[in-house]
Amino acid sequence: MTTNKKTLKGETTLTETFDFVVVGAGSGGCTVAGRLSEDAATSVALLDAGGRNDSWRITTPFGLALPYRAANWAFDTVPQKGLNGRIGYQPRGKGLGGSSAINAMVYIRGNKWDYDHWAALGNSGWSYADVLPYFKRSENNADFDGEYHGKGGPLHVNKLRSDNPIHDVFHQAAREAQFRIREDFNADDHEGLGSYQVTQHGGERWSAARAYVDPHIGKRANLRVETQAHATRILFEGRRAVGVEYRQGKELKQLRARREVILASGAFQSPQLLLLSGVGDGDALAAHGIGVAHHLPGVGRNLQDHPDFVFVYASDYPHFVHSSLGRLPSLLRAIQRYRRERRGLMTTNFAECGGFLKTQAHLDVPDIQLHFIIAMLDDHGRKKHKEAGFSCHVCLLRPKSRGSVWLKSADPLAAPMIDPNFLGEAEDLETMVAGFKTTRRLMETPAMRALQKKDMFTSDVRTDDDIRAILRNRVDTVYHPVGTCKMGTDAMAVVDPQLKVHGVEALRVVDASIMPTLIGGNTNAPTIMIGEKAADMIRGEMWAR
Questions:
Q1: pTM exceeding the 0.85 threshold for the entire prediction
Q2: Which residues belong to the annotated binding site?
Q3: Which residues are catalytic?
Q4: Which residue numbers belong to the known binding site for FAD?
Q5: d(CA 70, CA 89)
Q6: Is 350 in a helix, a strand, or coil?
Q7: Which of 249, 224, 238, 250 is nearest to 3 (CA)?
Q8: Is residue 140 included in any domain, yes or no?
Q9: Based on the structure, what is the number of domains in the chain?
């Protein structure tokens, strides 16, 4: 490793050289950095604009309910035409672990169909049979094994330790609605309802950082982790990526890469950094005075996310969480139990139950997903209510609408402009109407009715037009943006099936932005799989040289 220093206009530029520089310590970045640094002869630098994320508010699952801006970019969307011009909220993880440090910890891979579809689009090596070994390699599943599950991987997966009797009630409601009960959502089929597995260990959140990076900081001499390091541009020599410039405090620094620069900043900030570095649509770059390193029109296009509606009910059921964190004596008892046993309420991921359903019987795969929440969730939990209660999300798994991400300005510290284009396609709205009806069928079972003290928003919703109106008034994200650096071989693809950026050298993208289409489920486990597969492809190329 080499180091150089020079002063420019009062700012210090520090330059060091590694084999790989990974930008973004989210699920993909932590995974690929952790795996590549297993080879002591390979040096890896991992950068993230946030902090270590080792606070109890991160490691304690219940901390999900507590605002913690230091770990959240908390982006907004542009006004959404399909949502009556409303501005949506887009929380994204900041710091080690990325969104796996602030998510609901639900362990879902998606459907076999999703990956076979990727392969059918021309992405060889990405069928379900191809990616299953990487899911298994990552996983240490305490509850399941066999053909579909792994033991001994760095990512701990297990059943919840909250001991909440609501699971029995939810399962009973599923039976009353004549939905099948599903024990394992990550086997050959995932249609049905049940209790989710989570990425926890010993009752604590197990983020991608805790799985792949934290155990090795200070122990692997070849792994360098830089926090509070905001990447500002990729450095090019000709068409070859040779490093990254970043701001850390008041200093402007550089890290050089002998082999590759790896972008892993997520569906919003990976395309943003490419655009800031001159890789993207040439006309759009010129509008911001950015020189074109390579014209690549697909950068920032193809944004997909799960549009989501939330049913909310007040309830007197004693095992729901008050949105203002009231009922202090019971909360104190829960904290004491957590300290003793690492069990109980403090281990909740809130989205304890849910599953996958078809809105029409003839469909090949489920088209909606439910998340059953043990608290009233209004406006992403930002609006509080005086009563305790529960919620049930329903999201559309494979929306037809496509959005985009672009630059607000050439300022690398400015937030990107985000347009998910929710309900932009009429078909999405109609499928959400069917999803609303399917979910209401569950909510109207005797088991669910017995829990309800007050229907907060949907009591007067009766006709299809009523449903369409409330969807446009209340739909927003369920936090699964993907696709803005699409993998493929067509003119709008950004990376090839090896995740290399088209038209340049020594630059890959390893995060959810490479997904050509949105998978049918939560996106954390698939992004970790992408990191595992990327590391394997990179090592294979190194050994072949």
A1: yes
A2: 103-106
A3: 480
A4: 103-106
A5: 16
A6: coil
A7: 224
A8: no
A9: 1
